[in-house]
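This week, study the protein below.
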Amino acid sequence: MASQYELSRIMRPDDANIVGNVHGGTILKMIEEAGCIIGTRHCNTQSGDRCLAALARVERTDFLHPMFIGEVAHVSAEITYTSKHSVEVQVNVLAENIVTGAKKVTNKATLWYVPISLQNVDKIIEVPPIEYSSPEREEAGKKRYEAQKLERLEDKVRNGEIIMSVSLPDRQTKEPFTVVCSQSSLIHLVGPSDCTLHGFVHGGVTMKLMDEVAGIVAARHCKTNIVTASVDAINFHRKIKKGCVITVSGRMTFTSNKSMEIEVFVDADPLVEAEKGKYRAVTAFFTYISLDKENKPLPVPPLKLEGEEEQKRFEEGKARYLQNKAKRLADKERQQ
């Protein structure tokens, strides 16, 4: 039973920004494609209903090094844990300079999938178990499963309000470096090329759109070249069907000296089944950094807060920033 998979692709100009850095959304989309393929293959190794692995959650993903046009991305995926109804896939991304032969790890990600029946999209199939190299590995996987399950429930309780986009004439009247000055929205009609065999949006397509909006917010705040530094857990609360109009909205929540956190929502509006109403489908936090022309970090302008809600979101973002910083330092010490 194969529990590993790898895909490779050369990075083209349309994968990158104006200075040649590959978009974080492009990398996230490749990560999800690899995860979906290995998850779907594994869940169809048993008899019974055929199924497709649907993305439920992406854990925090750090962008360790930038990737550039002309480099080859090698995306390797491995199934590391299975519960009764979900699959954990760990993905590594390696960038190869095919001229010099130099290689570097750019991303490490953990994704969770649930297998959905091709005959009935509301039916979740049982997952075939995998064999673990040791009882300790199985126990560690079980702890990760319980932790992400709890975090998903907590995130689902959060009901952020709908974010309205600000038109250009209005934006020019807003004070620079405020939340309202940079907040942005993107509207997208879900077509067949965006969807799985079920007619629901690929998780990778959604993440790419989210990264685009977060990037616009960051660029409007800094007025410089910006790149994705990390993505906090992305939670997929509800499926998005073909024919829906989705609104992807982002707003700045926190800035440190060299980074900025952007909260992104995806709201789906079913045009054909309008009686079902608009609903919140996906939520996440993206972290960006500002770069100069030599790709060196620049200071980020401080966020100007207006009102108690913005102050509350800023403090929550600061807590996440400090927690992630402490975790990075602890991981660094363990590796030494």
About this structure: The mean pLDDT is 91. The helical segments are 24-43, 135-157, 168-171, 179-182, 203-222, 308-335. Residues 278 and 320 are 29 Å apart (CA to CA). DSSP finds six helices and 13 strands in the chain.
